[in-house]
Amino acid sequence: MVALASITSLLTGCSSDSGSGGAGSTGSGDPLANVTAKELIPSGIVGLGPNGVKSGTLDQVKLTEDEVAKAKARKFRVGIVMQTMNIEWSTEQVRAIKDRLKEYNAEVVGVVDPNFDVTKQVSGIENMIQLKPDAIISIPVDDTATAEAYRKIGAAGIKLIMMDNVPKGLKYPDDYQGMVSSDNQGNGAVCAQALAKFIPKGGTVGVLDFGVDFFVTKERMKGFVDWMKANRSDIKIKTTEFLDPANSGKDAGNFLTANPDVQGMFTEWEVPAVGIDQALRAQGKSVPITAVNIASDVAMDLATGGNIKALGAQVPYDQGLAESDMAIKVLLGGTVPNWVGFPSVPVLQKNVLDAWKQVYHQDPPAQLVKASEATNGGK
Is the pLDDT of residue 18 over 70? Predict the structure, then answer.
């Protein structure tokens, strides 16, 4: 996504009390100044996968040399059905899938981009089935509304590997053969832990929650709320919903106007985080925001000391590699775990460049490097 054009706000906030998860108090310091990203990493995978399953391991997905040789000889065909291609999480998933499948002499027959539209995704799934790929790798726009379309994939004899979510009612391993995601509850906990350091005792935080039946966003919300209840029960949480990511800024603005006591905001991915940031700027306010995912716009705001204070990042490139391996292994007759989860990657102003490299397996954009060098010595 395009970086925010003008980021001029300076880092403000509250200096934290001593001790883990301590409440903030009004002051001129940065409460995350003495916090390292490593300190925010949860101990192990916090969440569970679909139907409450524990995460499997990457070793269970990795192909043997013999399997790689067999895959190259078979020349499998794989389709990709995304929820949108307008975010870096999606483009990096697809890049990784293509990179890995190329190693196995497999063909990507097409990429469906419904732009968060259920009707377009259902149509895209049906069209992809007509191409008769050996496997489809996909993420649903809506867990419930797309379920029947996803059932048709297995009925057509096509293997199905899910990203992040499993549509309602689909059974493992009959309807789908595996799912890959980041530890979304863990990412929510990372965001809560970071945001809590800005909030004084008895303060109030707002949550801009995605009001659609979407497993991973609900997991992030659960991780955020559970951490707050366990560690900062003094903080009051107010929640509002948005349905259309494109209108999240308007929804955030209405919420902030109606709740002037809000001292921090959390939302479940970078698109609504940008909406919150834009709403705050329009109102002339500076409020700390935490969210999930690292993308160009939120990374730039974080690097330059804007309203974005911390992120809990997924690892979309690594996830794409694992999804590809899953697809090939099941096509060769193997079995993979119901769910494989990747640990959270906390992102702060001080480690934004290193985190970008870890998440995307690429050097960060030149503009982000320049901004980080100007504010943080290039770290």
Answer: no
Query: What's the confidence (pLDDT) of residue 213?
Result: 78
| Cβ pair 13, 198 in contact under 8 A | yes
Please tell us whether the domain made up of 14-38+184-315+345-376 is placed in CATH 3.40.50.80: no
Q: How far apart are CA 129 and CA 212, in angstroms?
A: 26
Task: Please report how many Cα atoms fall inside a 13 Å half-sphere around the Cα of residue 367, on the Cβ side.
Answer: 15
Task: Name the residue with higher pLDDT: 36 or 25.
Answer: 36
Nearest-angstrom CA–CA distance, 3 and 151: 38
3-state secondary structure of 261: coil
- For residue 51, the model assigns a pLDDT of 81
User: What class, spelled out in words, does domain 56-182+316-342 have in CATH?
Assistant: alpha beta
Radius of gyration of the chain (CA): 21
DSSP designation for 145: T
8 Å CB contact between 140 and 83: yes
Query: Torsion-angle region of residue 206: left (phi > 0), alpha (psi -120 to 50) or beta?
Result: beta
| pLDDT at residue 50, as a whole number | 82
What confidence tier does 286 reach under pLDDT thresholds 50, 70, 90? Answer: very high
Tens-place pLDDT, residues 151-179: 999 999 999 999 999 999 999 999 999 99
Topology alike, domains 14-38+184-315+345-376 and 56-182+316-342: yes
For residue 106, which phi and psi values (nearest 5 degrees)? -100, 150
Domain positions in the chain are 14-38+184-315+345-376, 56-182+316-342
Do 128 and 97 touch, CB atoms closer than 8 A?
no
